[in-house]
Amino acid sequence: MRQAAAHSHSGERRERVPPDLEAMRHLAHRLLEPDSAPGALPPPHAELGTLVLKLRTYLELLVPKVEQAALRIPENEIPRYCALACVGEARGKLRVNPHPGVSAGVAHARRLARVLHALCDHFESLIHHPAHCEA
User: Fold this and answer.
1) pTM for the full model?
2) Per-residue confidence (pLDDT) for residue 9, from 0 to 100
3) How far apart (Å, rounded) are the C-alpha atoms in residues 93 and 9?
């Protein structure tokens, strides 16, 4: 019984801790940089699995936070609609299993990085929205 209460308490604390958007953006940029810099190479294959796991973990943490923040915004507001669309996009990407091969793995990781970056943007704009500040 005592253990369940401790677990519940740590779960509540985790809900209140804001996500580390800087670390999330850093990881996303690391995977997206090769797209914007000619001659830059993607991450080594041995590191790719770890990076994808981190991306998935960040997405699983951020998706519900963005969704909760979006639901505090009035239904007729565009930021709410856009954030919820991005949440749906992220959930869809989390359900996809990449095809075998390095190229497919890198492409999958970059798709996850792009949606993570977009969710970070949405989260920041939502928490500064007047309707969110009033709640």
Assistant:
1) 0.80
2) 44
3) 31
